[in-house]
Structure formats: C-alpha cells, structure tokens
C-alpha cells in the first residue's frame, strides 16, 4: 500500500518534470492586475488547467470557465463549483470554476435562492464564509456529500488546477490568498482564505483533513436562514484540539480503512462579535434565476434539508458515523476515492509513524 502510493507520487512528479521545472501552485505569488491566462501551464496526469485566470466582461456569464475567485465580504464572494450540472465534487474538483455572488468578476453568478444562510467572519488571521446552499444550483449533485478544494492536491497543481483566490478585505487592493480551503457538499459550504501576512496561514488553511468536512476544518455557527457578517476569534488549527488540558493532534485515517466511524473530539466554535444582520434579497441582487433541473429539483430536496438540523449520517452515501449527527457536511466521506485523498491519508499516516 505505502509502496503503491509512493510510486504514484513519484511518477506524477516525473511526468510534470518532463515539461521543465515545476513549482507547486501554493509556492507561487500572482498579482491580480497581471495574471497569466493560466496559472498552471503544465501538463501532467491530470491534463491541462480546465479554465483560465484572466477574467473580464467577455468571460462573464453562466458558461464562464473563470478560475480566479474572490472573497471580499458577505455580498461579494465566490465558491468553487463544477462546470457541468449534476456533478460530484470528487469527480470534478480539478476543474471547478468560480461561482460568485456578484457580476463583475468575469465569472458565473450564483443563482437566486441558492444561498439560504451565510456568515462572513473576519478574524486576526483569516476571513471565512460559511453557510447553507442548495448546491444543485451551482451544478453539485443534490445528494453529493462533497469534498475539499484547495491549492494543493497530490500533484501540487491545486484543486482546481490553477485555481486562484484574491481578496481586498485586507487593504491595499487585491491580495492573493495563497493558502485557502473550500469544502462543498452535503448542503453546506465553507471557504476560508488565510491572510498571507500571518505566520500560520498554512495551518489555519490546512489541507490534509479532507474527509472531515466544514465542521472540523471551519467550525462556525452554520445557521440556516441567517445572513450576517461578524468579527471573531481564530479557530484552533484544523486537527488540533485540547482534551483535559492536553493539546492533541488528530490523524485522519486513510480511505482504505473505510468510513470514519469515530472522531475523538468536537471542534471548538470560536467566539464571534459585532455581527451585522442582513437580508439575502439585499445582498445578492445580481443573482440570475435558477434554471432547468436544478430549479425544480431544489424545491423539494433543499426545502427539506434546510428546515431541519442537518444530519450527515443520513446524507452520506457511504455511511458517516452515526455519532456525527447534525454536523455540517461538505466533505464527509466523499463517495469517490481521489488520489489526493489517498495521499493525504498516506502523509498523515507517515507523520504518525
Ligand atoms: C478577457 O479574458 C479573456 C479570457 O481570459 C482573454 O482572452 C482576453 O484577452 C481578455 N480581454 C482583455 C481585454 O483583457
């Protein structure tokens, strides 16, 4: 098993190396006003970057393949979603495109009624948006328990390949959030963008806990029907918790061991303050109507799911722990086993050794 995974890693690195020097996506800095057409010009086992990073009025629209995302505020942020309807995150994480709350970024715009509860949170080290979503309206299959996107991946090209994230929330114009993570699925979402000036950006925006979802990677209130923008304290680093006064590190088991049936801790939800309430109709004025199957299917599937506390135990097709009741989903036990997930498990295992 370990040999197999190590071989897979070495061979994907070798393929990339044939095209010349390869620099991991998260080791590169980009300037918003001088972006390349594609941040990832490489070819590899996962092919080419699916879309592009130069996004403007000609790319704006619901067919956009823009892969430059923005997170500024509660009324101006993007999430990563599949380009084609009814997709699984596990199958399409490498080609996700930006779905934004506003026009003007050269992207798709999240259709009306998709976001049913949103909290924007600013802390000393990151900004974060969390909430509930009728995910089929941004092309995620209604029953997908989802997964994680971040600028890493087994081949270090990012999920999506070449995906970039910028924010003007830290002042000085658009700044690249080099470290970020975005979990989508199970009717919830979380996007955390770590301030690159902070010493712990890579830890707050950790990418190795891809199987335990928003609740563990981005603990927050997740109140459906509530739209608010808050200040807050930092979370614990994902995977770090304190038990009886002792700081502990969680090790995520590899997918080869089956569903995660036991989680030894409940993540701490940090204190928030200065929350400003909003109504969604005032926030998302650019939202186009929901169309096609997504519009009709959502009226049944999402209504039911948004009116009651979410249970990942019933949402997850592959059997999330029965003890994990009412935990926001987004990434619990993806139905498909991706190489990156396997390798994340491998590295966690290796570190534990
Ligand atoms: C608009 O974006 C497209 C796609 O990235 C690019 O080919 C084109 O050059 C851009 N137009 C301008 C004026 O920058």
Automatic annotation (TrEMBL):
Transmembrane segments: 330-352
Region (Disordered): 293-327
Signal peptide interval: 1-17
Keywords associated with the record: Membrane, Signal, Transmembrane, Transmembrane helix
Name of the protein in its database record: Macrofage activating glycoprotein
């Amino acid at each position: 098993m370990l040999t197999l995974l190590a071989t897979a890693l070495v061979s994907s690195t070798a393929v990339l190396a044939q095209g010349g020097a390869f620099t991991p996506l998260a080791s590169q800095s980009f300037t918003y006003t001088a972006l390349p057409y594609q941040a990832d010009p490489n070819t590899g086992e996962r092919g080419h970057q699916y879309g592009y990073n130069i996004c403007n009025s000609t790319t704006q629209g619901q067919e956009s393949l823009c892969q430059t995302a923005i997170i500024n505020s509660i009324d101006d942020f993007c999430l990563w979603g599949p380009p084609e309807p009814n997709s699984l995150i596990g199958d399409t994480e490498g080609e996700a495109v930006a779905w934004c709350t506003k026009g003007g970024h050269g992207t798709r715009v999240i259709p009306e009624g998709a976001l049913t509860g949103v909290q924007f949170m600013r802390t000393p080290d990151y900004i974060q948006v969390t909430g509930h979503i009728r995910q089929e309206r941004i092309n995620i299959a209604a029953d997908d328990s989802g997964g994680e996107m971040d600028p890493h991946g087994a081949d270090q090209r990012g999920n999506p390949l070449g995906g970039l994230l910028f924010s003007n929330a830290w002042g000085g114009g658009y700044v690249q959030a080099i470290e970020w993570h975005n979990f989508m699925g199970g009717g919830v979402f979380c996007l955390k963008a770590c301030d690159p000036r902070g010493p712990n950006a890579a830890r707050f925006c950790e990418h190795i806990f891809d199987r335990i979802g928003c609740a563990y990677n981005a603990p927050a209130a997740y109140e459906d029907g509530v739209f608010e923008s808050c200040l807050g304290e930092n979370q614990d680093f994902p995977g770090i918790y304190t038990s009886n006064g002792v700081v502990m590190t969680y090790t995520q088991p590899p997918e080869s061991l089956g569903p995660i049936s036991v989680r030894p801790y409940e993540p701490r939800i940090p204190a928030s303050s200065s929350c400003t309430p909003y109504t969604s109709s005032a926030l998302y004025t650019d939202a186009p109507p929901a169309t096609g199957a997504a519009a009709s299917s959502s009226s049944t599937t999402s209504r039911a799911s948004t009116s009651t506390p979410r249970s990942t135990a019933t949402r997850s097709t592959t059997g999330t722990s029965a003890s994990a009741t009412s935990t926001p989903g987004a990434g619990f036990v993806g139905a498909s086993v991706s190489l990156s997930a396997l390798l994340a498990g491998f590295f966690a295992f290796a570190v534990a050794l």
